[in-house]
Amino acid sequence: MLYRGRLPDVILVSYNGTYFWEGKEFKTGDIYFNGRVYTDVLMNIDAHNQDVQVRMDAASSPIVIYRDEVAWLSYSGKTFVNLNYIGCESAPEGFFEILKDGDEAVFRQVQKVLRKSTANRNGSPLGYFDPEYNEDVFLYFEYTETYYRLENGIVKKISRRKARKEIQKPTVGENLISSVVWHPVKESSGRLFAVALPSSAGTLPDGYFEPQIEADDNFGEGGAQSATYRNKIYVIGSDATPGNRARVSGVVTDMESGEILSGVLVFEEDAQQYEYSDSRGRYTIELSKGLNTVHFAFEGKEEMVYKLEVKGDGVFDVALPDKINMLEGALISSESMIQHRTTGMGSERISINIVNKIPTAFGEGDIIKAVHMLPGVQSSGEAAGGINVRGGSTGENLILFNGNTIYNPNHLFGIFSSFNPDVVEGVELYKGTVPAEYGGRISSVMDVHSIPGRMDDFKASVGLGLVTSRLFFEGPLWKDHTSIVGGVRTTYSDWILQKLPKNSYYSGSSAGFTDANLGITHRFGNDDVLQFSSYLANDRFEIKNQVMTRYRNRNFSLQYRHRDGAGNNFTVQGGYDFYSSTYGDYSWDANAYEITTDIHQGFLKGVWKRNLGDHSLSAGSNTIFYTLSPGRIVPYKQSIIVRDTLAVERGLEQALFVSENYRINDVLSVEGGARMSAFYSVNSNKPFFGPEVRFSTKFTPVETFSVKGGFDIMRQYIHLISNTSGISPTDTWRLSGDDFKPMWGWQGAFGLYWSLPSWGLDFSVESYWKETRNALDYKTGARLAMNPNLADDLVNVNGKAYGMEFMLKKPAGDITGWMSYTYSRAFYQETDPEGIIAGGNWYRAPFDKPHELKAVLNWAMTHRYSLSSNIEYSTGRPATIPIGKYYYGGAWRIAYGERNAARIPDYFRVDIAFNVDASHYLRAALHSTFTIGVYNVLGRKNPYSVYYVSGRDGEIKGYMMSVFATQVPYINLNILF
Amino acid sequence: MKRVLSYLIVCACAFGCVYPYTPDTDEPMIMDSVPVFEGNITVGDKATLHYTTLIPLNSEKLSSRWIIPDFPWWVEDNDGNRYLPVTESPGEVSLAGTSEDKEYRIHAEYKGNVYESAWLKTNNKPTITGVSFNMVDEFLSLEVSALDAEDGSGYMAFSFTEAYEFHSEYIADYYVDTLKWKVLPLEGPSSYRYWCWKTVDYPNEQVADASRTGGVVKNFALRQISRSGPECHRTIVVEVKARSISEDEYKYKTNVDNSLQPGNNLFTPNPGELPGNISCISDRGRKALGYITISSCATLKRVFDTSLVRLAPKSETPLIIPEKADYRSLYFDYKYRPIMDVVVEGVFGVGWGHLRCVDCVAAGGTQTPPALLN
Questions:
Q1: Nearest by CB to A960, which of B19, B204, B269?
Q2: What ipTM, to 2 d.p.?
Q3: Predicted model pTM
Q4: Which residues of B touch A634 (CB under 8 A)?
Q5: Of B1, B3, B5, B25, which to mutate for an interface test with A (greatest number of A Cβ within 10 Å)?
Q6: Model confidence over A119-154: pLDDT tens digits?
Q7: Nearest CB to A885: which of B17, B20, B55?
Q8: Which of A338, A653, A845, B352 could lock A826 by a disulfide, CB 3.0 to 4.6 Å apart?
Q9: Start-end of H helices in A722-829
């Protein structure tokens, strides 16, 4: 069969250089194409797309012939081979020049990458000196070359120097390629190998270039043609599969690093079917038998389009390359389409690439701070830990890191997050429709996952900041089978504190943290993966002879994933989580003490997922066993404090869940889930249980406009008790039991999503109403630490929250980012109608901030340089303020009004950062990224808290404390090896 | 480069700041009608009651901190007996002969509303096991140790009275000629020096939590004195009072104290009003502040000679020569104090000395030794 090929890509913008291997000139040579050798063919290699273009003559338009049908070609004394064609599956796609033939052949591959740079460079970046170089043009094709060697049938990348040495060695064995004509043969097992055949020379048949006129006409009407790979047909499965439909499943990975990609849109063009890869990169889509056109789209990656000839159930793994095409034009990103193609609502995904661009106080990428910038998410104060999601308290968020629960996701009380940005791949926040497999918290789920590590070669980086430094590494332990990834982060803040004046309150103090991640992933073939993940973190802060806080996270998990050809995916994960917090008060020697609280948690979770075409099912169970030490006090040094330990609490949480996503038709789909959660309190010998509901529906009348609605019921059996604004070391966790009823809450939400592809914009509005029951608030003067009768110091409250979140997002282009405005309210009311707080009436929750305006913008000035900025405004958070003063006990005192009846001043902050990304010279030994920025560039004194002191003669003075009351400059350097 | 880096880093540590802040807190409609009661019942002795009212935060009306009740009030026990104020002292009720076995409360009728405290029963006395002056760096710390009563809650309240001996330690070097308003060196002998005593009551009780130490309070600091400052007098006598209090009272007083503590701690609990133990029973919605205590005090007295712990006191601060002005205002403004009126032959004026020179009369002292010394 003879393919005529397709027209080459048309690049509509000006550029320097050429995408051809050496020069633009077509050369006459021989080519093995579609099972035959053709001679005297005018051809050239497109090193950008790794294709061969042929011409009938010098005046005619070129045609791209299909690479997968080309075994080799030779012209100008050089021979190029398609290593994939001859069975070298380990080789990259494309053509390789044979520098040395034989058993230990050496190859060179030239790649041309379209770059954008304002720093004009003629010559080496182009691969040759171009006399027609135009200095006004910033786009150019950069020349890079890579060398490979054939060792025992496997192609391995080698350095240029080594390639030179290898070439000088005598050739061993027979010439493998250049002296014979190879013809691919497939065994019955499917293995591909090559046999030598007598040369059967010929010329391109008449009519081969016939479609030229038609193609030119097409070009005139349609403009640029589609990308590569479109017309290769992949045969999936066998005819043995009954029925008209079959399931295709696979894993989507990053072509560069081999890392799995979650959230990749898998979209079948004709039937308008879509699915997403899950957090392990797996996808399953049911397709009609026959020819299907399937897109794989992901932010920052090249959208890949494959033609799949589906004969039965089968596996199709995909690797997505980085998006390097800088062509202008409308772009519909996968992010845009997510809202129109998923039924769930209220979820946001942020990749680490975006996180690293968001300016932070000390320049280090911070997942928590990035999540703060989403609508519906509020921080409890500048640099304070914890988030409030849609009117929920900080303890109502489930924070997962590779499936492990992180009870305190902060370092240095919130200045840094616990998550090392080098290790993290991205975060998904569910603030609305939470998938049924997640539970245990009533407000949100934040699922952070780390990268699995490269399977091909080692990479490492060192990050240097003003306060922290980081080391990161990843690579294969067993190439293509086992990878390791690790990261360590520490501070040198002690050194900084020593710089403070000796008479300072903080003199002699210490503060710092250390954390470490280690992950090992092993693949058993294509379908089974075993993954070990661990996280260790230590925090400490001490003001000499005054107070000390120390907290630790320890998390370990082992996960096994399996998939089969029938579209079933199984995941089993078990692990152990530990969180310990110690608070020391050394201010009174005789009563100096340290109080420690611990949480030990063992968990086992199993999930089964199966895609059945219009239906996708999942089910599983989740078991958590808690051992919680609510307090242990020990004397410090000469203290007379009596050692004491509060009764250890134990509880077993068990959940069974099932959910289904049903795509009724192109316009309407529904997703429903049920989760039966139960909790057994060992201490009170009392069980609690109740159903949880997850439901959402989507109506998409046109592809770019969707309407969604959702309803959730969630339950929570572990309670964070706090009387401070943010997460504090004095906080304590308690399990449901006799004293504390399980919390539960429901949320109804409604949303509109509108994409404007021609503008590259997405607009969304989500509104919600949410109510919670059996939440806890504290009584004034409550003693939380080491209180055996803690319930007496707390009150049961019901909560209600409502709001509207407007969001305008630009996911692609030179300027990316989002802007959002949120109007939201959150209130509490004591369940006791004669309650002591606000007289039993509704009162503002401590995180009730009605107006919030946020913007995260990034302007990619060039491929290397970008400018990013944050803008954040919010109404001041509620505060309890004085209503007057009185004389009592020999001093003037202040009387406070109703709880949270007033507000501290509004919050407003602008940050900017200038980012220099790594150079793209692949031959460079080191790459570095550099960020310089200013946090709070306006120097606004945003309030964290207000307090009052008594002056002379009864004068009461109010003060406002700002954490970052001035501009905070920072520098951050990352060196990549 | 290192210097630049150091600068940047130290700057980074200094971003947190504190600024004056004035909240809009005027709520005049409630001010006058919110009474604040402070009373004490000492069974077998007497009960006292003061009151004041809540005033706006920025009010400068501070003259009447405590007001003797000018409204009907009394103490009543759980047998229905009423004890009325003493006629000549309307802020006091005699409880002579009353029994500690009963419960007592205060009843007051203020501006047409009736206020009553909770029923209170006398706790057993704690035992003061020691009062000491400890040197902590450059400070002298007055510390008390005590053991709570057997049936105590583990919370105790301490107050103390202090009497100290002081004197005009320095001889004047200069004097102001008040006729000519001119500062002149004081020539010739001027050895005026005399000793006197002053007694200061510290009524504000400080509460201690001994619930985690088995009821033992050890070295609880009541007051710190700079060993080189003017308060480090030659001889100090203190009488410390201690009483057992309930957990509720401890919480109330801690909350009252914390309401005005510097709150620049990131983990300071959110402030709020903690209800006292007196409320308006005629109108449940009406606010009332204050706490009525019941006491059974233990006392212990100690005399301390500071001469052994005093740091070198001589001040090298230059003398300020006042301009023509009311020299007495300088007493406050410049902390340079008149030693005494000096009489130089033919000249009337006021001598001036260094900071530690304290005029007995100006400081409210007396040459009569206090009763506490006995």
A1: B19
A2: 0.79
A3: 0.72
A4: none
A5: B25
A6: 667 777 777 777 778 877 777 888 888 999 887 777
A7: B55
A8: A845
A9: none
